[in-house]
């Protein structure tokens, strides 16, 4: 988009460029294709809004159009979050999913609930995986334990005196399998949830 062909006032060009610097900063966690696509959509939207504004002063019309669109760091959070989560569900990348969930935390009550729910699920996935590897480092303290009073404990325990560890090293493949299955299910649920939005 050639700004010189759209605007006659140099101040309008500066305002436009500064606005899209803010847009770029708000989307810096996205991949380049997503950034480009979103920026082009915003440019089209802002340009059309600018054209529809009444008045003759170019700068005033542009500022009014920008005001209608809003501050990029505010209105782009849900867009960035959804794009990160969509990419994360396709690539199964934990980093991308966690970044998307972190952005989701700031998006209102519904988004907060969703982020906490999925965040807790992914944390549980991490714990299952961690237990599998911790069994090699602390074999006496990791597993499924039954105490003499018939109570049960599962996880990484500090004190295991008098308790019987029931799974032994089977905790390793079972923990990894549980982590994989839970990760896959959570990611598919997240993908389904994003499609519904």
Describe what this molecule looks like in 3D.
With 197 residues, the protein is mainly alpha-helical. It has two domains: 3-75, no CATH class; 109-196. It has helices at 3-6, 10-26, 32-52, 58-69, 72-75, 77-91, 94-104, 109-137, 171-196; strands at 142-146, 152-156, 164-165. Helix 3 (32-52) crosses helix 4 (58-69). The model has no long low-confidence stretch (mean pLDDT 87). A hairpin with a 5-residue loop joins strand 1 and strand 2 (152-156). 71% of the residues lie in helices and 6% in strands.
Low-confidence stretches: none
Please provide the ordered H/E string of secondary-structure elements.
HHHHHHHHEEEH
Would you report the number of β strands? 3
Number of helical regions: 9
Mean pLDDT over the full residue set: 87
Number of domains: 2
Tell me the distance between the termini.
31 Å
Radius of gyration: 25 Å
Q: Main beta sheet, described?
A: 3 strands, antiparallel
Q: Any idea what the shape is? A: rod-shaped
> Which structural class is indicated by helix and strand composition?
mainly alpha
Relative strand content: 5-15%
With strands numbered from the N-terminus, the spatial order across the biggest sheet is 2-1-3
Helix-residue proportion: over 70%
Characteristic terms for this protein:
mainly alpha; 71% helix; three-stranded antiparallel sheet; 2 domains; 197 residues; 6% strand
């Amino acid at each position: 988009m050639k700004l010189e062909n759209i605007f006659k006032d140099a101040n309008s060009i500066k305002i436009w460029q500064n606005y899209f610097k803010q847009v770029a900063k708000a989307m810096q966690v996205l991949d380049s294709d997503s950034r480009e696509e979103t920026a082009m959509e915003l440019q089209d939207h802002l340009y059309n809004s600018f054209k529809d504004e009444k008045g003759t002063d170019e700068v005033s019309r542009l500022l009014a159009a920008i005001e209608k669109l809003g501050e990029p760091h505010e209105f782009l959070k849900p867009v960035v979050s959804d794009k990160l989560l969509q990419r994360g569900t396709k690539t199964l990348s934990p980093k991308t999913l966690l970044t998307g969930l972190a952005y989701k935390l700031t998006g209102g009550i519904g988004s907060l609930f969703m982020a906490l729910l999925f965040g807790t699920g992914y944390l549980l996935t991490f714990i299952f995986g961690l237990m599998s590897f911790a069994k090699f480092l602390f074999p006496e303290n990791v597993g499924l334990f039954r105490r003499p009073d018939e109570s049960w404990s599962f996880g990484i325990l500090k004190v295991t005196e008098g308790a019987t560890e029931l799974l032994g090293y089977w905790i390793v493949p079972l923990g990894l399998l549980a982590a994989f299955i839970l990760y896959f299910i959570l990611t598919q649920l997240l993908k389904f949830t994003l499609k519904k939005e």
